[in-house]
Recover the amino acids of this structure.
């Protein structure tokens, strides 16, 4: 996310957002509220259309297969 989020433009902090008593982070002294953070880590659409946004890092199929073999219990 550090390469997909502009800390100034893409992060919003919401104080006293409505919540419920089921929320473990509810602030009982303020009623059914808590604090939240929103992160916009989406590719900017205008850059996607222009095709100038860096591609997502991926690994080869061969490496994926070797990892699946090595860590069978996880897959």
């Amino acid at each position: 996310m550090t390469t997909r989020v502009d800390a100034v433009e893409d992060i919003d902090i919401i104080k006293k957002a409505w919540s419920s008593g089921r929320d473990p982070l509810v602030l009982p002294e303020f009623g059914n509220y808590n604090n939240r953070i929103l992160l916009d880590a989406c590719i900017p659409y205008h850059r996607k259309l222009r095709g100038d946004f860096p591609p997502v890092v991926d690994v080869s199929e061969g490496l994926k297969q070797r990892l699946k073999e090595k860590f069978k219990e996880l897959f």
Summary: The CA atoms of residues 66 and 72 lie 10 Å apart. The chain has one domain: 11-74. The first helix runs from residue 45 to 50.
